[in-house]
Amino acid sequence: MLQLLRNRTLQTILSANFFTTLGVSLFNIILLTYAKGFSNPHWFVSVVSVATVVPYVFGGLTGRFADQTQKKTNWLISTKLVQAGLYLILARIINQETAWVFYVVVVINFVSDVLGRYGGNLLTIVIQARIAPASRQQVMGVNSSVGTLIEPLGQTLGVLIIAQSHNYALAGIINALTFILAAGCLLIGRTTIKTTETMVTSPQQLPVWPVIQRVMRNVTGMDAVSYLANLMILNVATMSLDAILNLKFISLAPQLHVSYSVAILLVNIVLIAGNVLGGVTKTTWFDRCSLYQLLLVAILAPALTYTILLWWPRLTLILVGMFAVGFISGKLDPKMFAIMMREVEPELTGSFFGTISSIVTLAAPVGSVGIVLLYNLVGTNASCLLAIGLCLVAFVWAIYAHRSASI
Predict the structure, then answer these.
(1) Interior angle at CA 53, CA 47 and CA 58, nearest 5
(2) In its keyword annotation, does this UniProt entry include Cell membrane (predicted)?
């Protein structure tokens, strides 16, 4: 692990990721607070919620652009500087707090997020080009863990800025500064993230879906539709857990002999700890599992947690379930990226992973909102049973798809 952390490419990526995640998480919570201050706050908060999710849909497109980009290092640094410039513009207008300014602010944040997706695709290409195959899983895990650790720090900083200054423009300036610092880190470590430029075939001659189908079958033993659909269901189940726990603890916290805020804090700490440990370790039993086996375990983890909430709502058991969810997630995602990188042509790396990200992320917000609405309309039992049912469907589907593919 220490030897890996001495890798100059990883150091450059981690330092840039630190400042980028800090700025993005800081401003996302501030943007929600900003929207909540308008009359009819439900509408404005909904607009922000949708606008922060939609950029994920463009993963395939930004990935394609990343693949076709020459001088990737230059564009990666430039992207951060453009994002910084956008937030400096935002800082000039945001304190006016009129409806049209709100929509301009949302558009600026949206454009920055899309640029961030493009930059993320470029970094994926850098990792494929600069990191040895044997180290990619751990590099992806460490990089993901840094983001996981910094996100709550950024949110806390955002809350403190608004609580102390009530100045949204200051938040925009600080966010711009984080992107400038990220660009500085990339500029200082420029030689460590430089990739070999190759002539790229036109996008029309490189369809990505057949490549996805081939790679999925080779590395998962399942067809692409089944594997991606199972990942979508898994995302719905895990993303819904946070919202369900936030609601469940309102009535459950007194029985657990802790306050509501302490219960939420403990869950978040355990989830982050599990995710980080899953990402940075590489000698556990789970590291010997195939992607198919890890997918099955990952599906069972949220199903176990929902079962605990439904029949044995004890704090210790809930924390164990959330640790399992975080730990397996920290294993599955980096392993999936690392193994698939070996099978993907370098000129399709961005398109491949961008498209997968778009597909997997697309259904998660809709599904999780549906489970939360069911909680509010019917109750805890109905929402938990639906989530458990989705996990069981995914589990059976994965087994059937794997057996069918092997015949």
Answers:
(1) 120
(2) yes
